[in-house]
Amino acid sequence: MLYEKYRDEIDAILARYPSKRSALLPVLYIAQDAYGRLDDASIREVAEILDLPYTDVFEVVGFYTLFYNEDVGKFVLDVCDDVPCCFCGAEELVADLEQRLKVKAGYTTDDKMFTLRRVKCIAACDQAPVLQANLEFHYKVTPDKVPALLEDLRRKVESGAQISISGRFAEH
Amino acid sequence: MPKTQLQEHIVLRNREIANIADIAVYTQHGGYETARKALTTMSAQAIVDEVKKSGLRGRGGAGFPTGVKWGFVPREIFPKYLIVNADESEPGTFNNHEIIDHNPHQLIEGIIISAFAIGANTAYIYIRGEFAYGARLLEQKIAEARAKGFVGKNVFESGFDIEIYVHRGAGAYICGEETALLESLEGKIGQPRLKPPFPAVAGLYAKPTVVNNVETLTNVPRIIEKGADWYRTFGTERSPGTKAVSISGHVKNPGNYEIPLGITMREFIYDWAGGMRDPNVPLKFIIPGGASSSWLTPEHLDTPLTWDDMAAAGTMLGSGAVVVLDESVSVVKAALRVDEFFKHESCGKCAPCREGTHFLVKVWERIDEGHGRPDDIELLSDVGRQMLGKCFCPLGDSAVSAVNSAVKFFRDEIAAQIK
User: Fold this and answer.
1) Do B171 and A65 touch (CB under 8 A)?
2) Residues of B in contact with A24 (CB under 8 A)
């Protein structure tokens, strides 16, 4: 169970706020990592930890783009296609990733390794084209850099390194 | 020779001091001494007065005078909160990103001084969820400052307690709007609140709350250290100081530049950012203050970068985000992407924004795909009119900027694409 397993971390979060409800977003991040997504059961579990109505937690999960209520890959690849990125190589990057991964943006590869998404501005416009892999930044990702990047991420999974789709251990 | 770099940076000091994110380096360069001086020798009122005198205006977009905002906080109601708005999400803006990653201690020192000035013992840094590394880094840096006795109980032995917590959002532009931010921090969906009451009176948990942008607070230690008069040697009378401005798109040297307010757009693009990426492809238009701002064209290049001059030119300085686009860019595609952003980020609370952004995207999309209809330009303008001034918060209005700009400056190009 989530609370038993992450008691120290969750208690530390609760101690920051005078209201339990304020802990909702950080606790959802933990649950998402623990279960791989926020399905109905995990949402209900978080609601119980924080004494919240289930519907309030469902609503929050639906509202924010970094909470996933469907299965995602080991790595979520978010490519910014906003202005100016879309005029600075983002479209070419999305096309290249779609071809290599054999999925359209918005979907997960058959081997459940990668979920590819188009996202809006991630505040690194001078580094276009830019993507985040589990919320770690990768700058100036021209298509020639894609094979090495994907290989790196695959190796991370194989090596058993700590993977967080919530970005809880992001290093850059 | 045009002057293209400040002799002395105020906020991007990481540009002149290597490894200033390291607390040892930061303290070697006088770091946290200003907080010590402020908390042990100055009154809260004296700090508020100095910031008022400096004319510092909020760097998040609205440009509201920071000292005046602090002055609205009722002294006798407790507890009070200081919220750091690190939800940097306005398309084109990435200067807070640099401050957080490379000059975090100056931000933390600014938080300590500002919290003392308004009488808040708790500060929350609300950071956008995508800055996952930035959030971890700030937590580490706060722990370093705590270990030195700069954060926590009785800091600098002044009798003042200050706790600083990092709170990660989860991907929602609207949470940059201060009341939506407060809702989100309370664990709810990020929908704006009706104002009044303003946060200064009833904000987080209905207590007096000040919400300040990262860059705004990062200015504070230098203003208190060197004084309002020194600060006013930069910038103009009504837009004092410097501004970290992000420039991106089709310029040779995109990036952040800390500029003295008042230089012209031409100087900024051509002297500071190196001019157009490809000198053979001319400048088409500029989105000068983030995606929310109305566009400028080459005829506006001599507009000074100040709040007032940009307003007089029909746009805004906004969050300090200049997106430069050359003649290779399709106006329809640009407007479509801008409005897709606002459609995606509309919180759904009010109909004009929720429905309006949806219709704008639908129409731009069909024009982009070659299925535009003869009256689509009128339709876009009409939807815009039904949104402007009728939305619950500024997000809806922002979506209309691209429509009105595109139609005003590039009607012929859009019409040609419809035929």
Assistant:
1) yes
2) 187
8 Å CB contact of B165 and A63: no
Beta strands in B96-233 (DSSP E): 122-127, 152-155, 160-168, 209-213
B368-416 per-position pLDDT tens digit = 999 999 999 999 999 999 999 999 999 999 999 999 999 999 999 999 9
**How many Å apart are CA B87 and CA B173, to the nearest integer?**
7
Residue B251 in this model has a pLDDT that exceeds 50: yes
B332 close to B364: Cβ distance less than 8 angstroms? yes
The ipTM, to two decimals, is 0.98
CA pair distance A144, A131, nearest whole angstrom: 14
Residue B1 has pLDDT above 60, yes or no: no
Nearest to A121 among B89, B188, B205 (CB): B89
Query: Tell me: the pLDDT tens digits for B88-100?
Result: 999 999 999 999 9
Would you say the pTM of this structure is higher than 0.90? Answer: yes
Q: Which of 117-136 (B) contact A at CB < 8 A?
A: 128-133, 136
Mean pLDDT of the region B343-361: 97
- Cβ <8 Å between B170 and A64: yes
B126, exposed or middle or buried, with CB in 10 Å at 0-12, 13-18, 19+? Answer: buried
Decide the pairing of beta strands B160-168 and B152-155: antiparallel
Query: Which are the contacts of B280, defined by CB distance < 8 A and separation ≥ 6?
Result: none
Complete domains list, chain B, with CATH: 23-231 (3.40.50.11540), 242-326 (3.10.20.600), 331-418 (1.20.1440.230)
pLDDT band at B3 (very low <50, low <70, confident <90, very high): low
Characterise A103 by phi-psi region: left (phi > 0), alpha (psi -120 to 50), beta (else): beta
What Å distances lie between residue A56 and A44, A53, A96, B9, B344, CA to CA?
10, 6, 39, 46, 21
Stretches in chain A below the pLDDT threshold 70: none
Beta strands in B128-263 (DSSP E): 152-155, 160-168, 209-213, 242-249, 255-260
